[in-house]
Design brief:
- The complex is a heterodimer.
- By secondary structure, chain A is an alpha+beta fold.
- In chain A, 40% of the residues lie in helices and 20% in strands.
- In chain A, strands 1, 2, 6, 7, 8, 11, 12, 13, 14 and 15 form a 10-stranded mixed beta sheet that branches.
- Chain A starts with 9 loop residues before the first strand and ends with a helix.
- Chain B is α/β, with parallel strands linked by helices.
- Chain B has 2 domains: 353 residues, Amidase signature (AS) enzymes, CATH 3.90.1300; 83 residues, no CATH class.
- Chain B is built from 17 helices and 13 strands.
- Classes of the chains: A alpha+beta, B alpha/beta.
């Protein structure tokens, strides 16, 4: 092969993603679809491929896959079908895999996050293979069929010009979408999301063809960050090779995180002939327009749209909206609390709720990827607390103390908890002024520093007032009073 | 002659006989005569359950082809590769038989994995024709047919992929029914060619076959290709006068053997006497059916049989034996399949692998698929004009064992009249009509529209009564003690 001129070519990457779907059963039998069970306990004649057994398609898996396709704006095909992909391997009990080849579930679609977009080529359902473990004797393998026949959604993208960081961002967005739709854990780390990256070059960055390559298929990438780094490294390596005048060859490579470089796994053999055969045991999958409409109607508001709405409707920052929409339950919780504070003027309630949730709730909530436990403090209770704060009946530090008590005792109303803690009622003006005078008297140096223009000195004084008040002072008002006293002294 | 060899289930019941007494006599005779006929691969010593259930088949014992699974049964499909296999689960068909009070005497001999037309490709050796030793009982459900013809089972289950129920019924002078594809669940039927495989019935009479079908038919959540179509035995009083039979002359004009031609024409005359109209039904697309069938069945067989790789089955072969390089797994696969699969199965796997391979697929597999579509459409079209097709089951009576083993093409052509209904997924009923010059049975085949089994049963009953084949004194059920 002649050396390839890379001038005018753009490095590009195409992704092949396998998503483990969270259905109650396997794709073609009634065995439980879960990880962590003892080897070969979640098996039956069907997923063992025993003679005479027949696959029966899980409707839940089709619904899961269709949800993702609809969310990605893909065209869900009215009729899709399964094929048998043949190759002899110990992890395939029948020595063929049941997959959708000629007629995939969905075609096209596009997903874009943070300015990085990938056009989708296709999405299809297929069964996972068994897990291979080291066998009892050297040179043997043991087969755990628990994973055999569990449902996978394969997503294949068109190649796109995206740097490693962009690929990482995009995969994080995809992971959020999968969790948002409650179809997958989306963990690259434990294999519930698997991503291979095909790295090559494109002649025109706006057109996917002609696509030169892929020259490298990157495998065994266990986190979005790793994928990003591997893609960057591979583009560099291929570019350097081409500049030296040598022709890159088709290779499968893995990523060595320690060394920060890719390593050769194997040279890609000539294309394997899988002798696809239409699966005679499964009738075509027919999705009527009415079914698709129902599935589309049942889709939750998607994360990107929701972020945008949060900014407009609640007047919160893009960053706050993004963080709140990292998890669907967190966004739901925010909206629930904000809704209960809708009586406050303007968007004060929403701002209060957003700030509180981002600083006090998000870090304390064990947000498992899918269907986490509800937060300890129910939305109404948090709204009650924030009402007290907004009405000036509790100062912020006092509210934090009450909140800590609520975490342990979410059943008791915040007013009762505040009373128990001796925090009920924000201090009056006279009391506050007394503490301020005391603070100034105890720290004459601070007043001097303030006069020299050191703003931090005021923070120090506010802290002293808070300590003197045992948390009952409102720090914002304390600051005002202190500032007034200092300025009055100045003008004297 | 014994009543349990001679009587149909309907007759036994009408005569007030105890079905289970007959079944007991059959079980004893099967042990005695089993070795001569070679009809069974396994007799269940526990065939008699602690109590006989109720239902339409209460007490009637049957033979089950060795590729139809029962829990704990040695369903080896007459293949060495499954020689130590015991199925841990049972088929829907067997479960339905047992729920209807039916008893299973044992597993019936067959061509390995259903591939063959003579029951000679079996690790157990060939099945003998109960009419005459040294002749084939037909294949691949030869053991099932021989057991029924010899009176060792009231009826039998077989499987029909390209004629494997009808051809043995033809060779053994009994009734064979291949239902519409999907009418009987395939769950637990060890696959040969999944888009063609159908569990069928070998019986002593048309009514017996209908009774068994009424027990087997209906949807099964374990088989996604099963149809929501139960079957009720049609009322015996229904007339057939005025119905039309179509003769596919494109196939029958080639009949070379005078006895077969004469028998067929005589059968058509009997049909006319019954008030049936007999017309020509052009079906040129059926001429190439055997080639199409071979390509498609082989492709699916190569896929279905890929699982016999030595990991779970046929694992007695030490990895490495007879292998030529490759990984340890590849060596194990090669060794297992080389030793465990018979010559005809290997031939079909090679053919099936070839017709799906890149570069050949369009010429073979895709063309065959296209032809299947055309043939199916043509047959449905014809069956919109006539009520059923009528043609011989085969171009001749049973052939001598060994006479076709060296000529696979001749063996494949044995199925030329049965494969069209298989490709189109249509129901077909074979019933005996007469004897050829050698005194071996001949038969006719009725092919009906999709789910038209009730019509086939009505037509079959009328012809059966008029032909009165069952009373022929040469038949094994009259000759055997």
């Amino acid at each position: 092969m002649a050396p390839v001129a890379l001038s005018g070519l753009h490095p590009s990457v195409g992704l092949e993603i396998h998503v483990r779907l969270l259905t109650p059963t396997k794709l073609f039998c009634r065995c439980a679809n879960r990880v962590g069970a003892e080897s070969n306990t979640l098996v039956c004649p069907v997923c063992m491929g025993l003679p005479g057994s027949l696959p029966v398609l899980s409707a839940a898996a089709v619904a899961c896959a269709a949800r993702v396709a609809l969310a990605a704006g893909a065209r869900v095909n009215r009729i899709s079908a399964f094929d048998r992909k043949h190759y002899f391997y110990p992890d395939l009990p029948r020595n063929y895999q049941i997959t959708q080849y000629a007629h995939p579930l969905a075609t096209g679609g596009e997903l874009e996050w943070g300015g990085v977009g990938f056009t989708l080529e296709r999405m299809h359902l297929e069964e996972d293979a068994a897990r291979l473990l080291a066998g009892p004797r050297a040179g043997t393998v043991a087969v755990d069929l628990n994973r055999a026949g569990t449902p996978l959604l394969e997503i294949v993208t068109e190649p796109a010009c995206a740097p490693g960081a962009g690929v990482r961002t995009w995969l994080q967005g995809l992971r959020r979408l999968l969790r948002w739709l409650e179809v997958s854990d989306g963990n690259l780390e434990d294999g519930s999301l698997r991503c291979d990256a095909n790295v090559g070059f494109m002649a025109d960055r706006n057109r996917t063809h002609p696509w030169r390559g892929p020259w490298t298929e990157l495998k065994n990438l266990n986190s979005p960050g790793m994928i990003g780094r591997a893609v960057d490294h591979e583009v560099e390596r291929l570019t350097a090779l081409a500049q030296e005048g040598s022709t890159p060859v088709h290779e499968t490579r893995s990523w060595d995180e320690k060394a920060g470089r890719t390593r050769l796994l194997r040279y890609k053999e000539k294309t394997r002939d899988y002798r696809y055969l239409p699966e005679p045991d499964l009738p075509p999958v027919v999705l009527a327009p009415s079914q698709l409409e129902e599935l589309a109607a049942a889709l939750p508001e998607l994360p990107a749209a929701r972020e945008e709405r949060f900014q407009g409707q609640y007047g919160i920052s893009a960053e706050a909206a993004h963080t709140l929409c990292r998890d669907r339950v967190l966004a739901d919780y925010f909206e629930d609390v904000a809704g209960r504070l809708a009586g406050l003027p303007n968007t004060e309630g929403a701002t209060l709720a957003a700030n509180w949730i981002l600083t006090e709730v998000a870090g304390r909530w064990n947000l498992r990827p899918v269907r986490p436990e509800p937060f300890a403090v129910p939305p109404q209770k948090l709204a009650d607390l924030l009402q007290l704060l907004a009405a000036g009946k509790l100062a912020r530090p006092a509210a934090k103390q009450v909140f800590a008590a609520m975490l342990a005792d979410p059943g008791t109303p915040p007013t009762v908890l505040a009373q128990r803690l001796g925090l009920d009622g924000v201090a009056g003006k006279a009391e506050l002024e007394t503490w301020c005078h005391q603070a100034l008297a105890a720290a004459p140096g601070a007043a001097a520093s303030w006069r020299q223009g050191k703003a931090a000195a005021l923070d120090h004084l506010v802290g002293r007032v808070m300590a003197l008040s045992g948390g009952r002072a409102d720090p914002a008002r304390a600051r005002e009073v202190l500032q007034g006293l200092l300025q009055a002294e100045d003008s004297n | 002659m014994s009543w349990w060899r001679r009587m149909t289930m309907t007759q036994a019941r009408g005569a007030g006989r105890e079905p289970v007494a007959g079944t007991g006599a059959m079980a004893a005779a099967a042990v005695r005569e089993g070795r001569t006929l070679n009809a069974f691969t396994w007799l269940d010593p526990a065939w008699m359950p602690p109590s006989v259930g109720q239902g339409p088949l209460a007490g009637f014992g049957c033979a089950v082809k060795a590729n139809i699974c029962g829990a704990g049964w040695p369903n080896d499909c007459a293949s060495a590769v499954l020689s130590h296999y015991r199925s841990p689960y049972g088929s829907t068909a067997v479960a339905r038989l047992q729920a209807a009070g039916g008893l299973c005497l044992g597993l019936a001999n067959m061509d390995e994995f259903g591939m063959g037309s003579s029951c000679e490709y079996s690790t157990y050796g060939p099945v003998q024709n109960p009419w005459r030793e040294g002749f084939t009982a037909g294949g691949s459900s030869g053991g099932s047919a021989a057991a029924v013809a010899a009176g060792l089972a009231w009826f039998a289950l077989g499987s029909d992929t390209g004629g494997s129920v009808r051809l043995p019924a033809h060779c053994c002078g009994i009734v064979g029914l291949k239902p519409t594809y999907g009418r009987v669940s395939r769950y637990g039927l060890i696959a040969f060619a999944s888009s063609l495989d159908v569990i069928g019935i070998l019986a002593r009479s048309v009514d017996d076959a209908a009774l068994v079908l009424s027990v087997l038919a209906g949807p099964d959540p374990r088989d996604a290709t099963s149809l929501d179509a139960a079957f009720a035995v049609p009322d015996p009083g229904l007339p057939v006068r005025g119905l039309t039979l179509g003769v596919p002359r494109d196939l029958t004009d080639g009949l070379a053997e005078p006895a077969v031609r004469e028998d067929f024409e005589r059968t058509l005359a009997v049909a006319r006497d019954l008030g049936l109209k007999v017309v020509d039904a052009p079906l040129p697309a059926a001429a190439d059916a055997v080639q199409t069938y071979l390509v498609l069945a082989a492709a699916e067989a190569a896929s279905n049989l890929a699982r016999y790789d030595g990991s779970l089955y046929g694992g007695t072969t030490e990895p490495g034996a007879g292998s030529v390089g490759g990984t340890a797994f590849e060596q194990q696969v090669t060794a297992t399949r080389t030793a465990g699969l018979g010559p005809e199965v290997k031939r079909r796997i090679l053919l099936g692998t070839h017709v799906l391979a890149a570069g050949y697929r369009q010429r073979f597999y895709d063309r065959a698929q296209a032809h299947r579509k055309v043939l199916t459409a043509r047959m449905q079209e014809v069956l919109g004009v006539v009520d059923a097709l009528i043609l011989p089951t085969a171009a001749e009576g049973a052939f001598r064992l060994g006479s076709r083993l060296d000529d696979p093409v001749a063996m494949y052509r044995t199925d030329q009249f049965t494969v069209p209904a298989s490709l189109a997924g249509l129901p077909a009923l074979t019933l005996p009509t007469g004897l050829d010059a050698r005194g071996l049975p001949l038969s006719v085949q009725l092919v009906g529209p999709r789910l038209g089994e009730d019509l086939l049963i009505r037509l079959g009953r009328a012809l059966e009564e008029a032909l009165d084949f069952r009373s022929r004194k040469e038949a094994p059920w009259h000759r055997l003690p």
